[in-house]
Amino acid sequence: MAAHKVICWDCGAEVEDPFVNTCPRCGGLLTVKMDLEKVKEMKPEDLRKTQIGVWRYAPFMPVDPAHKVSIQEGGTPLYSTQALGEAIGCKNAFVKFEGLNPTGSFKDRGMTIGVSHAKELGATTVGCASTGNTSAALAAYAAKAGMKCAVFLPDGNVAMGKLAQALFFGAKVLAIDGNFDDALALARKMADERKLYLLNSINPYRPEGQKSVLFEIMDQLNYDIPDRIILPVGNAANIWAVYKACMELKEVGWIDKVPMLTGIQAAGSAPVARAFAAKEANFEPERNPETIATAIRIGNPVSGRKALKAMYDTGGYCTTVTDQEIIAAQQLLGRKEGVCVEPASAASVAGLKKLIELGVADKDERVVCICTGNGLKDPNAIIDNCAPPVKCKNSIEDVERILSQ
Ligand SMILES: *Cc1c(COP(=O)(O)O)cnc(C)c1O
Ligand SMILES: [Zn+2]
Asked: Does some domain include residue 248?
């Protein structure tokens, strides 16, 4: 474990109480300040002796591997997606497929660090509010750690695969009468009363694990730094984590330039994109967010201000895509690359297509789209947009008739 402290991102105060999630002095957002002095003496190759995955990057993580709770998260493929790139007008497109994590989304990267830290603190009950993937991941890691787990979900608004996972891993699943933002407010109240250890991304340890996706991309590209990285933005912690990882690699001298970090939101749920268009440092919450991409249906993103800084600081960008564009990109990934992602994840690819059309991204840029979650999480979103199976008689003639259509 690298030495570190938790500080307030807004006022800089050091925060000692490991159970608070906002600054006791100013109410600001927390973040982890890593002490990377020892890493400065290392090279990227020094870490390649261990299997690729979150814990390869332990020197950048604020948790002692002695408390490791792991299901071998990370180490996901980085595909060179030429056929997809040709279809959307980008010559050098890559897809980092986070759907191949143990529970099927990048949330596992944050949870291995978050739950390991909870274990370090001696917590016995963990909890989170979730649009689905956070709860699936937390439920699995809590099971692995032998902890009790409570998840707060917006009633009726969670994709089937995700709900199934939370139930399957033995979490107490609470269907809250309200949307995600309401569920989070309730989970935070429980945490404030110390009734559970909260593992939403407002917890400063979770984004630390999520930094590893950037470390892996650099490893997989042999530190040939991409021009741009595109991510879907919901609660906005992941793009912040990627930014933080870039800053830390720069601090230790492993990179000298930083990719343009680009966030994509769904048109019906776009508080960060609107703030970016207005060049604001803060955003106005959206009261009734709506999109087929349930993982980014979030009106009041906890890390929205951090995400805006990440995009401004790197010369990045933020825009929106419609549900139609999301579904089209999801299908393109399937038909051109054999990759099945959930709708929120396809937003990054839909976003790349739009950026090229807008002239914001150049067709020669090397771009990595992070595809955050597995398509099997949300089978309804797929079946609703595919032609149904074809009725066929039990005969070769009928098969041939259908295949020739
Ligand atoms: C959580 C999640 C997102 C959004 O990530 P944020 O850090 O909240 O911006 C996007 N896609 C999937 C599949 C997710 O599970
Ligand atoms: Zn503060």
From this structure: yes
Neighbours of ion ligand 2 (CB under 5 A): 8, 10-11, 13, 23, 25-26, 28
> What band does 131 get if pLDDT is binned at 50, 70 and 90?
confident
For the residues of 298-363, what is the DSSP string, one character each?
-SS-TTHHHHHHHHHHTT-EEEEE-HHHHHHHHHHHHHHH---B-HHHHHHHHHHHHHHHHTSS-T
Closest ligand 1 atom to residue 235 Cα is 8
Condensed to tens digits (0 to 9), the pLDDT of residues 180-224 reads 888 999 999 999 999 999 999 899 999 999 999 999 999 999 999
Find the ligand nearest to 231 CA: 1
Q: Across residues 236-247, what is the average pLDDT? A: 98
Distance 18 CA to ligand 2 centre (A): 15
- Cα 393 to Cα 19, 388, 401, 405: the distances in Å are 63, 16, 10, 15
Ligand 1: residue of 98, 100, 133 to mutate (most ligand atoms within 8 A of CB) is 133
Residue of 372, 376, 378 with the most ligand 1 atoms within 8 Å of its CB, for mutation? 372
Quick check: 232 and 239 in contact, CB under 8 A? Answer: no
**The pLDDT value given to residue 181:** 83
Identify the domain containing residue 267 by its residue range: 78-104+207-383
82 CB-contact burial (10 Å; exposed 0-12 / middle 13-18 / buried 19+): middle
Render pLDDT for 369-383 as a digit per residue (tens, 0 to 9).
Answer: 999 999 999 999 999
**Residues within a 6 A CB radius of ligand 1:** 105, 107, 133, 201, 232-238, 295-296, 342, 344-345, 372-373
Q: What is the number of domains present in the chain?
A: 1
- Ligand 2 geometric centre to CA of 37 (Å): 25
The verdict on residue 262 lying in a domain is yes
- Ligand number nearest CA of 30 is 2
pLDDT at residue 81 is higher than 90: yes
Q: Is the pLDDT at 1 greater than 70, yes or no?
A: no
Pick the closest to residue 370 from 217, 201, 190 (CA basis). 217
Q: Residue 156, SS3?
A: coil
Is 129 within a domain?
no
The domain spanning residue 346 has which CATH number?
A: 3.40.50.1100
Query: Does any domain span residue 332?
Result: yes
For the segment 8-34, the average pLDDT, to the nearest whole number, is: 96
